């Protein structure tokens, strides 16, 4: 398991995730189609050229959010998460475009043991996504229910 248990996540800890992901046109169009998002900003190049400040299609913000969290999983919660509890304070200060590469860093903002489940803890993360130029394209805070290290030495599996 690559993910960290509750005890391994320290407040203030910053993780630079090594995996970057280049977003393709197919990613954006497929995600928009799968989620029935017909927003022309994502699927209509002509519209974007003529009627938007961007001059071209932008990547669906919900896809950007999902990818940002996804990039963090192997280093933080792969196999140790029970559930995501909330996503808050989502900001998209600039768009991603087809061909941009997303890089993510995460910080542990706070943590506490679960009051009702002694084998779990609640952790709040801040994820910051940047494009290949180092420009912030997304910021989000995520709260997750994370397993505590088993006392018998057995893993989550």
Automatic annotation (TrEMBL):
The protein's name in its UniProt record: MaoC family dehydratase
Highest classification ranks of the organism: Bacteria, Bacillati, Chloroflexota, Caldilineae, Caldilineales
MaoC-like domain segment(s): 11-122
Organism: Litorilinea aerophila
Superkingdom field: Bacteria
Signal peptide interval: none
InterPro entries listed in its UniProt record: HotDog_dom_sf, MaoC-like_dom, MCH/BMMD
